[in-house]
Amino acid sequence: VNIKYTGVCNSDYHAWKGDWAFKPILPLVLGHEGAGVVVAKGENVTNFEIGDHAGVKWVNSTCQSCSFCEEAHESSCPNQKNSGYTVQGTYQQYAVANAVQAAHLPKDVDLAKAAPLLCAGLTVYKALKNANIRAGDWVTIIGAGGGLGTLAVQYARAMGYKILAIDGTNKKDHVLSKGADEFIDFNAVSDIPEEVLKVTEGGPHAVINVSNSVKAYHDAVKYVRPTGTVVLVGLPKGGATLSTDIVSHVLRAINVKGSVVGNRADTREAIEFFRRGKVESQVKIVGLSEAPEVFKLMEKGEILGRYVLDTTK
Ligand code: 8ID
Ligand code: ZN
Fold first, then answer.
1. Which of 97, 209, 263, 275 has an alpha carbon within 20 to 30 A of 103's alpha carbon?
2. pLDDT tens, 48-62?
3. Structure confidence by residue, pLDDT tens digits, 133-155
4. Of the candidates 143, 118, 303, which has an alpha carbon nearest to the alpha carbon of residue 234?
5. Atom 40 (ligand 1): residue with closest C-alpha?
6. Best of 178, 212, 260 to mutate for ligand 1, by most ligand atoms within 8 A of CB?
7. SS3 of residue 203 by DSSP
8. What is the rounded (10 degree) CA torsion for 61, 62, 63, 69?
9. 162 sits in which H/E element
10. Whose C-alpha lies nearest to ligand 1, atom 22?
């Protein structure tokens, strides 16, 4: 795939820093939100033609034969390869993906805006599906102003949920403009569980944490509504653990669930929400050579939405 644009995900930052116990290959080209044009294909590839638009996502290839692949839990395939982690990624002009896992991008979808959908959009859409809630229910989105969070707010709105967004002071206007009903500033509020319980009248039916904050995870299991679900998406530095008060956990019958990207159907559905205008993809386009500056902004928590790199600059 001739990659035209690639999104900058916080996971790229973690890969660069070597933050997780699961280690990347070295040397490594980062990137797993690549959008571009098919320029060559293997002789057995039947589902793409030269000239088609394609997305290269985190799940670059899977074995198709394990029990997880059989049941469409491809992101749990033990034999999967990951773009920008265990195979060379999309911070370059030409990248390879297995045709089965490459995403089909309709030609009327702008490639720069499509890029963030391939990880951020897909991941939050799947996390919301995994929350298993109904239209009208409360969902709390932690880290709502970042790359994943900005899209999470919009998918949640499109899916009919009431949204309580949590992030820093500098993200408030941005997050409310994307459709959050309520906002809590984690810098300004000292007792976050108390405030969440008040705003959501007894706790949200689901919590999606897309921040790196371990404290936010501990708060979430305290304030989630009885029978509700905390979806773990944000990936803090390796070694972080989540503890929970067992008696309270049992008596409130709460669920705690990890969620990692999504399968091919989730990818197609997440792209379709965007194509139909139900979510917008706010991107700031800079040159590939500016990636180090983007990482600095990410480190300081100053990014609203997603940065996308133009691979020709
Ligand atoms: O499949 C997955 N599970 C998956 C896929 C893609 C990304 C997981 N991730 C992980 C990344 O590795 C990272 O840990 O999701 C996390 C978020 O990625 P991102 O959206 O690309 O990061 P960002 O744009 O930097 O946004 C993070 C937001 O969190 C806020 C920041 O202000 C920022 O807006 N935040 C922080 I840091 N601490 C917070 C806190 N205590 C907080 N918001 C609320 N409360
Ligand atoms: Zn990502």
1. 209
2. 999 999 999 999 999
3. 999 999 999 999 999 999 999 99
4. 143
5. 213
6. 212
7. coil
8. -160
9. strand 162-167
10. 10
Ligand 1 binding site (Cβ under 6 Å of any ligand atom): 9-11, 14, 119, 123, 142-143, 145-149, 166-168, 171, 186, 210-213, 216, 233-235, 259-261, 298, 301, 303
Sign of the Cα pseudo-torsion (94, 100, 101, 104, in order): positive
Query: Smallest Cα–Cα separation from 163: which of 195, 143, 184, 139?
Result: 139
| Its pTM surpasses 0.85 | yes
Q: What gap in Å lies between CA 268 and CA 288, rounded to an integer?
A: 27
3-state secondary structure 109-129: CCHHHHHHHHCHHHHHHHHHH
Q: Which atom of ligand 1 is nearest to the CA of 233?
A: 3
CA angle 91, 92, 95 (to 5 degrees): 100
Identify the residue whose C-alpha is closest to ligand 1 atom 23. Answer: 146
Ligand number nearest to the C-alpha of 32: 2
For residue 49, the one-letter residue type is E
Tell which atom from ligand 1 comes closest to the C-alpha of 171: 34
Position 238 pLDDT exceeds 90: no
Q: Where do runs of H (alpha helix) occur along the chain?
A: 10-17, 67-70, 111-114, 120-131, 147-158, 172-177, 192-199, 214-223, 246-251, 264-275, 291-299
Q: Is the pLDDT of residue 167 over 90?
A: yes
